[in-house]
Amino acid sequence: MFLAQRRDEVAEATLQGYHYRLEPFAQWCDQVGITNLNELTARSLHEYRLWRKQDGDL
């Protein structure tokens, strides 16, 4: 949704950069069952950061 909204406002390279950065977060949300960003808490964001660190991405 975010990328679709930004498509007409930014360059293609910018969209690709956004996608590259958002894809792991979207995968994690799917994995843990978060379907609405209103469900995010400080704790869940902390868990996401730990998940990324385990993969060596942070």
From TrEMBL:
Gene3D superfamilies hit by this protein: 1.10.150.130
One GO MF term attached to the UniProt entry: DNA binding
InterPro entries: CB, Integrase_recombinase_N
UniProt keyword list: DNA-binding
Boundaries of every Core-binding (CB) domain copy: 1-58
Highest taxon, organism lineage: Archaea
Name used for this protein in its record: Core-binding (CB) domain-containing protein
Organism: Natrinema halophilum
